[in-house]
Design goal:
Length: 319
């Protein structure tokens, strides 16, 4: 089985507004401003990624009173000032190309899951890690679809991450900052995961998340914390460029330093990653000496360096 996590990108987001009053579960909503929102539009009711956010289609709009009627009732009560975001598309179409194929084939059309911080989840039970996948946007009312050529091709297994987007947002203190999109956090996390893998490859087989003893392990929790610190640190550093060296920007750099210190300790063997059985994960060979001299010496050179023309250094002592 191949798991895909498909993020909802900024290109799918339009006008934003908020609820002007509490809305009971049902079809009636009152907006602060419904400019740019018309009948048959799709909207996300509630903050995207929140447990009770809902993607709904608008049936009618009363321009003067700022009231809208939904085609299907909401399941939850939504409070005053909860955000409303217009979506241009309500579904994703998933295409797959196996290594033996020359073209992509449509394998599924799925609803965009607005209550998942990561994005829409799809499990391909007949897929392969060598398969390439693309996901387009699809509007179920108008039948319009974005170009397959514009969709990024990814290999299967892209749903495995060290931490989720909400954890990064929370670590950075941006829970209620609507100006920082999940797509941006997704990119920052990719940067952090790349650094983590590049750092740990000298001690562990990467990606370490593929280890069968990795799931729900103490080692997983440690790397999750590192990823949260790195991602949140870079996000804070980027968000406050005028504070470089002070304030929130400085706090972000401290998180980056803490994460890199933990990675350094893992490489040095001071911190050991444990599996779900609480036994150390298998590490690569760390006993060899990197540098010169090494075990290529058949014998120890004499003090005049005559026995080895490649003699580089001495320690200034004779036994």
């Amino acid at each position: 089985m191949i798991t895909l996590i498909i993020p909802n990108e900024d290109l799918n987001r339009g006008e934003k507004t908020r609820l002007n009053a509490q809305a009971a579960a049902g079809t009636a909503l009152e907006f602060e401003n419904n400019q740019g929102i018309v009948a048959n539009d799709f909207i996300c009711v509630g903050r995207e990624g929140a447990e009770q956010s809902e993607l709904k289609k608008i049936s009618t709009v009363n321009v003067d009173q700022k009231n809208v009627t939904l085609a299907v009732a909401t399941k939850f009560v939504h409070e005053q000032f909860e955000e409303i975001v217009k979506y241009f598309y309500d579904k994703r179409r998933i295409y797959r190309k196996l290594s033996s194929e020359s073209a992509y084939t449509l394998i599924a059309t799925v609803d965009i899951e607005v209550d998942r911080p990561e994005g829409t989840l799809y499990n391909d039970f007949s897929g392969a890690s060598t398969a390439l996948y693309k996901a387009t946007y699809y509007n179920s009312h108008s039948g319009t679809e974005t170009s397959q050529d514009d969709a990024k091709a990814v290999y299967g297994g892209g749903g495995t991450h060290f931490c989720n987007l909400f954890e990064i947002r929370e670590e950075a203190g941006f829970n209620n900052n609507d100006n920082i999109s999940d797509e941006r956090i997704f990119r920052v996390r990719a940067r952090a995961e790349g650094e983590i893998n590049a750092s740990l490859i000298s001690r562990y087989s990467v990606p370490i998340s593929s280890n069968s003893y990795w799931s729900d392990s103490p080692g997983q929790e440690m790397v999750r914390q590192i990823c949260m610190l790195l991602s949140a640190g870079w996000l804070m550093w980027q968000e406050f460029p005028d504070e470089r060296g002070t304030g929130t920007s400085k706090d972000g750099m401290e998180k980056i330093k803490e994460a890199r210190s933990m990675l350094k300790d893992i490489r040095a063997g001071k911190l050991v990653l444990l599996g779900s059985d609480n036994n150390p994960l298998t590490r690569t060979d760390t006993s060899s000496i990197e540098g010169y001299p090494n075990n290529s010496f058949a014998s120890i050179p004499d003090e005049n360096h005559e026995d080895d023309e490649n003699y580089i250094f001495g320690i200034g002592m004779t036994w």
